[in-house]
Write a structure and sequence with these properties.
With 215 residues, the protein is of the alpha/beta class. The protein has a single domain, classed as TIM Barrel (Alpha-Beta Barrel), CATH 3.20.20. It has an eight-stranded parallel β-barrel with strand order 1-2-3-4-5-6-7-8, surrounded by six helices. Helix 6 links the parallel strand 6 and strand 7. Helix 1 packs parallel to helix 2 and helix 5 runs parallel beside helix 6. The radius of gyration is 16 Å and the shape is globular. The two termini are 25 Å apart.
Length: 215
């Protein structure tokens, strides 16, 4: 099952020259326990080579490795699962291909999309964009209210995405997210390890605060 917390998205499209496996290794050493590989521009062959290396690193660290969009690539490198968007392969088909034990994530912006994803076998949802984001300028912002609406509709774990910084983590967790998916806030940080640690600390504090409020 997906662990929640922090999901680091490795996307070389917005960061030319990004050393994917080296970046994954540094993030995992800093405490990240989930990594997703995402690229629309790289060839499938090039991504396969990178994915193999990241798969080795995540296994060594006991971390989750997800592949965005490409079910065949996820299966080829024995990733822990795949994340699909609304225009990708239908979730029900992907579930049949990857089997019942692998993780299936789905992007959802509305309660209706979230409910459909739950029916088709998703294990978790990626909800956003919560805030405007430079890494995906075309992404429609749903805001914290949109996140709350999805949270009210389904019980699946939710990873919030889009413009999230450590300072925004408390609001995102309070609105119903179980964790955050980040890209630029870590990959573009002057000190990657420090950025990962700040996110992990912010998530822990927000989860503790939410637990106290509920009790």
């Amino acid at each position: 099952m997906f662990p929640g917390g922090l999901l680091l998205i490795l996307d070389p499209d917005g960061f030319p020259g990004l050393e994917l496996s080296k970046t994954a290794e540094r993030a995992l050493a800093a405490g990240a326990r989930a990594v997703q590989l995402r690229s629309k521009r790289f060839s499938r062959r090039a991504l396969y080579a990178e994915a193999l290396e990241i798969r080795k690193l995540t296994r060594l660290r006991g971390a989750v490795f997800l592949v965005n969009d490409y079910v065949d690539l996820a299966l080829a490198v024995e990733a822990d699962g795949v994340h699909l968007g609304q225009s990708d392969l239908p979730l029900s088909v992907a579930r049949r291909l990857i089997g019942p034990g692998d993780i299936l994530g789905a992007s959802a912006r509305t309660p209706e999309e979230a409910l459909a994803a739950a029916r088709e076998g998703a294990n978790y949802l990626g909800v956003g964009a919560i805030y405007p984001t430079t890494s995906k300028a075309e992404a429609r912002v749903v805001g914290l209210e949109g996140l709350r609406a999805v949270r009210d509709a389904v019980e699946l774990p939710i990873m919030a995405i889009g413009g999230i910084t450590p300072e925004r983590v408390p609001d995102v967790i309070e609105a119903g997210a179980d964790g955050v998916a980040v890209l630029s806030a870590v990959l573009g940080a002057p000190r990657l390890e420090e950025a990962v640690e700040r996110f992990l600390a912010a998530i822990r504090m927000a989860e503790q605060s939410r637990s106290k409020t509920r009790s």
